[in-house]
Amino acid sequence: MLIASKTPLIRAEEIRSRIAELALEIKTAYPSGESLTVIGLLRGCYVFMADLLRELSCLDIHVKEVDFIIVSSYGSSTESSGNVKIERDIRQDIHDCHVLLVDDILDTGITMQKLINLLNLRKPASLRSCVLLEKPERRLVDIRVDFIGFKIPDQFVVGMGLDYNQQYRELPYITTIIKSEDTVK
Ligand code: IMP
Ligand code: MG
Fold it and tell me: Measuring from atom 16 of ligand 1, which residue has the nearest CA?
C-alpha cells in the first residue's frame, strides 16, 4: 500500500512564500495593470489557485473573472496517458481577455500544451500559464510555462491539491508517496 510520507518535500511555509513571489512575478509581467481572467484546471489547481488569487489581491492585481476547466487524462493512478479530453469547458468568452492559466504540476506537459493550443484559438489578448510544480525530467513536449513555483525531481507527489487516487489533496505541503511499511522501519 502506498501512503503520503509525513516528511515534506516542500514545507507549507516555503510554499506560502514562493506563492507570494509568484504573484510578484505575475504583477511584473503585466506592467499596464491589465485585469486578469484566471482559469484553473480542476481538480489539481484548486488549493494553489486559491492561495495565488489571494496573493494577487494583496498586490492589487485586478481579477476580472475566475473560471475552471476540467480535463481528464486516462491512465494509471501515477501515470498520465497523454490522452487528454475536455470534460467541462470554461463558461466565459476569453476573446481579448488577458488569460492566466493555472495548474498544479507540469509533468509531461501534454495537458498544458493541449489547453494552451485550445485557448489560443479563442484569441485572448494574452495567454500566460502558471504551475506550482514542474518535473523537468519528465517533459515530453516543448512548451513554455511563464510562472513556475518549484522544480522537483521525477517523483510522484501529493498535497496542495495534488492527489494519489483522489487522496491527500488537502495536505498543506508537498510530499512523496511511499510504501506504508517504510514508515514502520
Ligand atoms: P501532464 O499532462 O503529463 O503534464 O500531466 C499533468 C497532470 O498529471 C497534472 O495536472 C496532475 O493532475 C497529474 N500529475 C502529474 N504528476 C503528478 C504527481 O506527481 N502527483 C499528482 N498528480 C500528478
Ligand atoms: Mg491536474
Answer: 107
